[in-house]
Design a protein that fits this description.
This protein is of the alpha+beta class. The chain has 14 helices and 16 strands.
């Protein structure tokens, strides 16, 4: 069986399905001298070529049949057309060049090392795949809206999809091909690496190629994760209204950490001296906490909100029953700019533990690690030049976001000017005022007041304090 390839000039060349069936290989007589492992290695390398050809064929359908369809081009606005097809034409061009490069190696060498070509193209050109994946959410959103709002688009698209070229596959199947291809390419390189000899040149090139393609796949997966986070954020924003001061929820740097319903034990008491219970719904994001109540089945009304770093958690010590399921939530600076407290009860002990862990500041031994949404800033007061790998050179006046602080006087940071990241001594910088510092001062003030209040209560209040009961 043979596979055809159409070059840019429209000339047909033929690829055998297997490396061992190529005329060049058969005429050389080399098959008699190859071990099974060596043959499998060559077939694994050759599989990259044949699968790239099949992938390019499908990309050609996506571009030539769908994207360049005269009917769609006339119907869609330039913005919708760009959003729907993104940079798939550029992806096709990269695939064509990648395949051409591998074919040239095949034509000039009996034993070709495909990993050399993979490394070159992934390091120099495959950043376009990451950009394409980043825009896939806009593609899906555009396709969904066009199908929902434009009957003429649905009619044209159905006609295009019925063409034999599509093999009964919808447009969406063609649009996700780039993401599927980079994932498969990584698997193919892993298979090549497994079949190389220890310490061989092939093993080295396969390891280098795998490292590069893994970077691309990891970047694509991060973009997919961000895409899902953004979709979830949009869904929450669409079903949320504010009873208090509103704030924009949708942000590329925000994602949902945890959500769920708890019970608030209010200060109001019934005739039996028992606290009244009121349902409350918490939506915890990486940088923000919303305190809401449910409205109907799937909508929320936000009553309060606070920056995540301005949350304090303590035990519900003044409640007699089900103490292990309660905790006190303190908002040090809520939407009104004041401090508020809520006594909450989780539906189970496990839920209580999970909520306390999620809401509490994370501690990692002696080292302090900061999040991007709440990190201190420093300014360089004394130039520093790297002395070993992993360090960061600083010039006078550089402003750096701190990522990590160690107990031995070193900081890890990222320069604002160019995003360069590394370690440097704390002695060459000084902290500058920003929102992180203001929030830290507010937390310290709260802790001082709490300590003073605790000492006064122990000194002046009777030993047996009145306990509050609940249902």
């Amino acid at each position: 069986r043979e596979t055809s390839r159409v070059s840019r000039k429209g000339q047909h060349r033929w690829l055998k399905q297997f490396w061992q069936n190529r005329s060049l290989v058969l005429e050389s007589g080399v098959l008699e001298h190859l071990s099974k492992q060596q043959l499998l290695l060559q077939e694994s390398m050759y599989e990259v070529v044949t699968t790239e050809f099949s992938y390019l064929e499908s990309l050609t359908v996506a571009v030539d049949h769908f994207m360049e369809s005269p009917a769609l081009s006339l119907l869609l606005t330039p913005h919708d057309h760009k959003s729907l097809f993104s940079s798939i034409a550029r992806i096709k061009e990269i695939s064509q060049n990648f395949l051409d490069a591998m074919i040239r190696e095949l034509d000039t060498s009996l034993f070709f090392d495909v990993c050399v070509v993979i490394h070159r193209y992934t390091s120099q050109h495959f950043g376009a795949y990451v950009d394409y994946v980043r825009n896939m959410s806009y593609q899906e959103h555009t396709l969904h809206n066009l199908r929902k709002q434009n009957p003429q688009f649905v009619e044209i698209l159905d006609q295009l999809q019925e063409h034999p070229l599509c093999n009964r596959l919808p447009l969406k199947s063609f649009l996700v091909l780039p993401l599927q291809r980079v994932t498969r390419l990584k698997i193919l390189v892993e298979n090549i690496l497994k079949r190389t000899e220890q310490g061989s040149k092939n093993q080295t090139s396969a390891q280098i190629a795998l490292k590069e393609i893994s970077k691309v796949v990891d970047s694509c997966n991060r973009e997919v994760g961000k895409m899902k986070q953004m979709e979830e954020l949009v869904r929450i924003a669409n079903k949320t209204e504010f009873e208090c001061k509103a704030l924009p929820l949708i942000s590329s740097s925000r994602w949902l950490v945890r959500q769920g319903e708890l019970t608030e034990l209010t200060d109001k008491e019934n005739i039996f001296g028992q606290r009244k219970l009121s349902p409350v719904y918490l939506l915890l994001f990486n940088d923000l906490l919303l305190v809401a109540v449910k409205k109907g089945v799937d909508r929320f009304v936000v009553q309060d909100h606070v920056h995540r770093s301005l949350i304090e958690i303590s035990d519900g010590e003044d409640v007699e029953c089900e103490l292990d399921r309660t905790f006190r939530l303190v908002l040090l600076k809520n939407h009104k700019g004041s401090t508020s407290e809520r006594l909450l009860r989780a539906p189970s002990l496990e839920e209580r533990t999970l909520w306390v862990q999620a809401l509490s500041p994370q501690k990692r031994g002696e080292e302090v690690i900061y999040e991007e949404w709440d990190c201190p800033q420093v300014q360089c007061t004394e130039s520093y030049y790297t002395q070993q790998p992993g360090e960061l050179s600083l010039q006078l006046g550089d402003v750096i976001n701190i990522i990590q602080k160690t107990h031995d006087g070193f900081l890890e940071g990222k320069k604002l000017v160019d995003g360069e990241q590394g370690w440097f001594p704390i002695s060459c910088v000084r902290e500058i005022a920003n929102e992180h510092v203001q929030r830290r001062n507010l937390r310290q003030r709260y802790h001082v007041l709490q300590t003073a209040s605790h000492l006064l209560s122990r000194r002046y209040l009777p030993q047996e304090c009145r306990n509050t009961t609940c249902f």
